[in-house]
Amino acid sequence: SPSDGEWEPAIPRHVAIIMDGNNRWAKRRGLPGPAGHRAGVEAVRGVLRACREHGVEVLTLFAFSSENWGRPQPEVRALLALLSRYLRSEVRELHKDGIRLRFIGQRTRFSERLRKLMLQSEQMTAANTGATVVIAVDYGGQWDIAQAAQKTGPARQGRKSAATGDYPGTDRPTHFHQRPSQAGSVYPHRR
Asked: Among 1, 27, 117, 129, which has the minimal tally of Cβ within 10 Å of its Cβ?
């Protein structure tokens, strides 16, 4: 606490945002849905800047849930095109600013081209230690449960995970794009 008795707010180490409502925002303004999603990307730039200015270590963006696949196909295509454009246009800037980019969630339903772009983005920024941006893709309730179960995996070494049917810390496949032993920490300085 400050010596002069004034209250000083605590800065969180990790901020998570569920990117929801962009379509409704656009429709209220008489704009097409994709315009709302583009505005959401613009808002993320400001949030990321504020996180860096205030020392937030990790920003997680819940960007594309498994429920998004059920949207009309033109909207799904627009969302995926926006994600591709974002990665192609922003990753170099993130890298230049020392920001590490990670993806969590299921990747198998995305095109090979988009999966490759995700992987290249992670590889380019892997050694950065300034902050971490985590983008959650194709996630949902089952994904959340399985993640929670896997976090208890190291304490249950060798016991089968009830949530996924996989063996934590082994070479047996999981339902995620990485085995738990390969996933690493979202906090780059805590490896």
From this structure: 1
